[in-house]
Write a structure and sequence with these properties.
Layout: H1 3-15, E1 24-26, H2 31-53, H3 57-78, E2 81-83, H4 86-98, H5 107-114, H6 128-137, H7 145-172
Antiparallel strand pairs: 1-2
Helix pairs in contact: 1-4, 2-3, 2-7, 3-4, 3-6, 3-7, 4-5
């Protein structure tokens, strides 16, 4: 299925149901909700270190994923979309990147967060999603220190790009 077909399916799913739709829905752009999602993303970003320091670095991986995901939700609502489906969120991001509507994030960045294939840029050749799923579904309770540091750094780097995308949109949206 092509990106356009997947995006259409997500938008169709967003039309069904009211508050509990399962796709993408066009909404009025909401700067306040965008700020709230960014605050949640920053909260999750801080939790990465907090979990590690408490001896729960397995949860650091989930906090990393959700710091980035909530950041992407901030981008969506800022531009007038609501998502109730992670796959749909990422498909819309990829669409905007391919059209040049997002200029700092790359498709590789988005796939780092979501795609299940291997990424050679990360320690142990794993993407953030891979690390999160491995830690969430395994019996391991601690990330190795070097893996934790690599995850934290990569998450912060991607978070900074997402935050700059939000800021750039505000700047370019002014008359």
């Amino acid at each position: 299925m092509s990106v356009n077909e997947k995006l259409k399916k997500c938008l169709d799913e967003g039309q069904h149901g009211h508050e509990r739709h399962k796709g993408l829905r066009k909404i009025k752009p909401d700067a306040q909700l965008s700020k709230e999602y960014l605050t949640k993303a920053q909260h999750n970003l801080a939790a990465i270190t907090s979990f590690h320091d408490l001896g729960y670095s397995d949860w650091s991986a989930s906090a990393a994923f959700y710091a980035l995901y909530h950041g992407l939700l901030a981008v969506l609502v800022q531009r007038g979309y609501e998502s109730r489906n992670q796959s749909c969120t990422f498909i819309l991001m990829e669409e905007w990147i391919s059209k040049g509507e997002l200029t700092l994030l790359t498709v590789t960045d988005v796939k780092e967060i979501f795609d299940r294939s291997i990424n050679e840029d990360l320690e142990h050749s794993e993407k953030i999603l891979d690390i999160r799923e491995r830690m969430q579904y395994s019996t391991k309770t601690l990330l190795a220190e070097e893996e934790f540091q690599a995850l934290k750094k990569r998450t912060k780097d991607l978070f900074d790009k997402i935050k700059l995308e939000l800021e750039n949109f505000i700047l370019t949206d002014k008359p």
